[in-house]
């Protein structure tokens, strides 16, 4: 009886301290889940946001030709820094470390097997379309709310500003 209890406790301790995944396990999952492709597809979106931000800076105030050239240099340097920092060679070690700290080996293997399956591949293939559809649905939902908000803002802006209160005349003693 005591031996059975010891085996049960040992089994519970083993499951409580599940083995961490190896680098190879995580690399298999990263490959199966197309993590590098996802990261690579994020970069153009981030670059577009950066371009828009720099364009706003340029339109918010008049810039001299020298300032415009300097702004372009900063924009180019920022784009290069972003590309380097988010490159797969820089990010993969971080992914591996985070997956190893977050998931058990059993979790990583199960996820890799799922992403390697036809259902997992279908999910990966269709996720970009799903995200576009979600964004379209959110935009459709937000459009009437934004129109109402714009109407309220226009109404507030159309109201004349209250005139300042007349200054009190000094009282003569």
Write up what this structure looks like.
The protein is mainly α. Helix 2 packs parallel to helix 6 and helix 6 packs across helix 7. It is elongated. The mean pLDDT is 86.
Give the structure's gist in a few sentences.
This protein is mostly helical and 173 residues long. The chain has seven helices and no strands.
Radius of gyration over C-alpha positions, nearest whole angstrom: 29 Å
What composes the largest sheet? none
Poorly predicted regions = none
Distance between the termini: 105 Å
Number of helices: 7
Order of helices and strands: HHHHHHH
Proportion of beta-strand residues? under 5%
Shape: elongated
Mean model confidence by pLDDT:
86
Percentage of residues assigned to helices: over 70%
Number of E-state strands: 0
Structural class: mainly alpha
